[in-house]
């Protein structure tokens, strides 16, 4: 009996000795362009449903003030994967920031609207020489402002105010109009504080407006981490589509807005996000090209070809809760 006990203890000690310390979860730093925006909802869902954990990852979410600032954060090494338009990737490569879009996130400007204060009588044509609020130069809002200038043949001044500054500056009269994203656009319209003079969801041709982006060196050094992060993020999109009430409640809590506004965001934005994410899909190159063409017509220069902007190396396999 004593011998058996000693053998058991020895075996246990050996097992502990040779097993070594438990493997720590790999950290993935997720950069988000602004707080009250659907990428935050996606990332928060992935965290709360433990989808990153199921992929063996620990997620750290950082919210920036604009898409341009988010891209700068990745370029500076402060974020591993971010959500931004492909035009930033294209322009960035010419400046030595070597990154690619690894996941198609959305093919439309859902919820994006050009808005003026409710009592304003301005139309799009009346914005000639006026001030229009955007988040930052090079951001998604800036691209839409540039598209408006080109398509509507009107010249106005683009004023960067940050994501959190769009609505306050619009309502305070510091800018005459603003390019506002959802659900903020839904919220101020419903409250009667502002009105839409151009709905970008219908006005702009379908194109790849935003995707998940990583630096080339990160994708080469840690391809399995990129794959797992994409799995978790697209797993979150699938979860949200299948769990309406939970998602509406999350949107309402995250952004401190009424459930009816959160429901609009769910129906008009969340339900229109790309669920596959693969950059290998047949329609992706043309969608990216259109996005780059819009940026170029708006005045952005030094844009590289589509094949240098995207990576077809990854195919998201949505993580299940």
List the main descriptive attributes of the protein structure presented here.
D-Maltodextrin-Binding Protein, domain 2, globular, SsuA/THI5, 321 residues, 14 helices, signal, disordered N terminus, five-stranded mixed beta sheet, ABC transporter substrate-binding protein, alpha/beta
Task: Please specify the SSE layout and strand pairing.
Elements: H1 2-19, E1 26-32, H2 38-48, H3 51-54, E2 57-63, H4 67-75, E3 81-84, H5 86-94, E4 99-106, E5 113-117, E6 131-134, H6 140-151, E7 157-160, H7 166-172, E8 177-180, H8 184-190, E9 194-199, H9 200-203, E10 210-215, H10 216-221, H11 223-242, H12 244-255, H13 259-268, H14 284-297
Parallel strand pairs: 1-2, 1-3, 6-7, 6-8
Antiparallel strand pairs: 3-10, 4-10, 5-8, 5-9
Helix pairs in contact: 2-11, 12-13
Subcellular location: Periplasm
Protein name: ABC transporter substrate-binding protein
Pfam families: NMT1
Shape: globular
Which stretches are poorly predicted, pLDDT < 50 over at least 5 residues? Answer: 1-22
- Report mean pLDDT, rounded to a whole number: 92
The DSSP helix count reads 14
**CATH fold node name of the largest domain:** D-Maltodextrin-Binding Protein, domain 2
SS-derived structural category:
alpha/beta
Task: Give the strand order of the largest sheet, numbering strands 1, 2, ... along the chain.
Answer: 2-1-3-10-4
Helix content: 40-55%
Give the end-to-end Cα distance, rounded to a whole number of Å.
Answer: 47 Å
Write up this protein.
The chain has 321 residues and is α/β, with parallel strands linked by helices. The N terminus is likely disordered. It is globular, with a radius of gyration of 22 Å. The longest helix is centred in the last third of the chain and has 20 residues.
